[in-house]
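Quick illustration for those who missed Monday's session on complexes.
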Amino acid sequence: MRKGFTTRAVHQAGHKDQASKAVAFPIYQTSTFGQETPGDPTEYLGRKLSYGRTENPTRTVLEETLADIEEAKYGLTFATGLAAITAVVNTLQAGDRVVACNDLYGGAYRLFTQVYAKLGIEFEFVDTTNLSCVATALEKPTTVLWLETPSNPLLNVTDIEGACKLAHQAGALALVDNTFATPVLQQPLKLGADIVLHSTTKYLNGHGDVVNGSLLTDKKELWDKLKYVQNACGLVPGPQDCYLILRGLKTLGLRMERHCANARRIAEWLSGHPRVTQVYYPGLATHPGHAVAKRQMKDFGAMLSFEVDSGEEGARRVLSSFELFTLAESLGCVMSLVNHPASMTHASVPKEVRHAVGIGDGLIRVSVGIEDVEDLIADLDSALSKA
Ligand SMILES: *Cc1c(COP(=O)(O)O)cnc(C)c1O
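Prediction with pyridoxal-5'-phosphate bound:
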């Protein structure tokens, strides 16, 4: 029987350093590995150690631990989330077509439209919360359906099982960016996805001190292709970063409980605030994706967005008035962060496109941390008084 989530996260796929039995797997800070005879590299943890870009034991342990907690057969880890995205797109060729959700992570949108579109890969962005839009988009031959749920920054929810079914009927692969939910709350491979992507920078590491990305799959042929690209394009993370993520993963289950409980309290509190006109949080019964989120997620996560009644000017005053919430890009770490999508995380998305998908200039995104929730609410209350 598979052991519980936190047991798996703490035990690192059963790996201990074989030489020393160190309880924390060591950082193999090395660029290469000596060989006894030419062309006969040392084997360790089932991998041939020839060169640090190709294999590194600390990275192997992270990849196998990530696979274990996502309940995937295979894992890979990358320098950043965008490097993981780059790896997937580099398995495609000119003429291939990607259908993606229309409120995709801003950096992925920029990479697709500014870097890969000119190499002949076609991208179409659709409202994947509406399965009939997905079905229409998949009428043209498609290579990958690219989903992000809950999405960034509006927390839109896509029915993973329904969308993956449509992708497979159309002969496309289905990828889910699971960064916002984490494997604690949502397991897309069980709902039909072929590839799960994480910006491990966020909750999986959780401490705001590393950038990293990962891909998980059950399909050996996909893993082989992606692993080839990981090495051929040199998209790998350093061993020290891998170590920090292994450390962060040990408390992921515990952190998510607190993150979600804090976010639920804050979403409810904001909903009752007289200056707040709109709260986007899938845990609220009024959220359009609530029913689907309830079905496919164990809890609703700790990302939320809201609007104040005084528009962009008011939002800017609020954003500059926090004591505990740091105004910063990124999300998913123990300390609470706030962000202004229009001028920060989503600034690379053209204004018309942003407005069309509902990302207004007065929108404030919150990544709720694990601090004591009364302190966070007091800070929000004081900042909102400047709205
Ligand atoms: C941050 C993020 C990424 C990109 O990851 P980096 O580690 O910043 O390169 C991709 N998808 C989502 C949903 C993200 O939040």
